[in-house]
Amino acid sequence: MTYSVVNQMVTSAPAPGHRISFVRMGGTESLDLRDLHERAERLALRMRELGVEPGDRIGILA
């Protein structure tokens, strides 16, 4: 996996008094870091249930 600014943001704690959030481009929905982690965990669990394993390649159509 390549390392990116997003990786750095989600793996490090925000500075005291700061809150990291993500806003979907062109949308109004925003997620704080906790919500982002919860959604990522649910997605990872579902992918494992479907047989996707670490290191497998997947395609994303958005």
Task: Tell me the layout of helices and strands.
Blueprint: H1 5-11, E1 21-23, E2 30-32, H2 33-49
Please characterize this protein's 3D structure.
- The protein has two helices and two strands.
- It has 62 residues and is of the alpha+beta class.
- The protein has a domain at 20-55.
- Helix content is 39%, strand content 10%.
- A hairpin with a 6-residue loop joins strand 1 and strand 2 (30-32).
- A two-stranded antiparallel ribbon has the order 1-2.
- The mean pLDDT is 77.
Spatial strand sequence of the major β-sheet: 1-2
> Strand share of the residues?
5-15%
* Unreliable stretches covering 5 or more consecutive residues: none
Average residue-wise pLDDT: 77
Based on CA atoms alone, the radius of gyration comes out at 14 Å
Could you give a short account of the major beta sheet? 2 strands, antiparallel
Spatial gap, N to C terminus = 20 Å
SSE topology string: HEEH
Helix/strand structural class: alpha+beta
Helical residues, percent = 25-40%
Q: Count up the helices.
A: 2
Strand tally = 2
What does the overall shape look like?
A: globular
Brief rundown of the structure:
With 62 residues, the protein is of the alpha+beta class.
